[in-house]
Amino acid sequence: MEWASWSDFWKMGGYGLYVWGSYGVTAACVLIEVILLRRSAGDTRRRLKRMQQWEEE
């Protein structure tokens, strides 16, 4: 597909809202997943430290 201008590229032949909206939703989901994974990893590390301290007592 060839575009005559950047405006045509962003419009994507009339499907720009769908195409760019899909990219946006996907990027948001990936970002949320990364945030949740980091939070979960931090919780797991804290839990393991508490378990190690409990075993040492």
Q: What's the β-strand tally?
A: 0
Q: What summary fits the major beta sheet?
A: none
Mean pLDDT level: 91
Percentage of helical residues? over 70%
End-to-end Cα distance, whole Å, is 68 Å
Using the CA coordinates, give the radius of gyration. Answer: 23 Å
Overall form:
rod-shaped
Q: Ranges with pLDDT <50 over ≥5 residues?
A: none
**Continuous helix count:** 2
Can you lay out the helices and strands and say which pair or pack?
Blueprint: H1 6-11, H2 16-56
Q: Features of this protein?
A:
57 residues, mainly alpha, 2 helices
Structural summary, described in words:
- The protein is mainly alpha-helical.
- The chain is rod-shaped, with a radius of gyration of 23 Å.
- It is built from 2 helices and no strands.
- It has a domain at 28-57.
Please provide a brief summary of the model.
About 80% of the residues lie in helices and about 0% in strands. The chain has about 55 residues and is mainly alpha-helical. It is rod-shaped, with a radius of gyration of 23 Å.
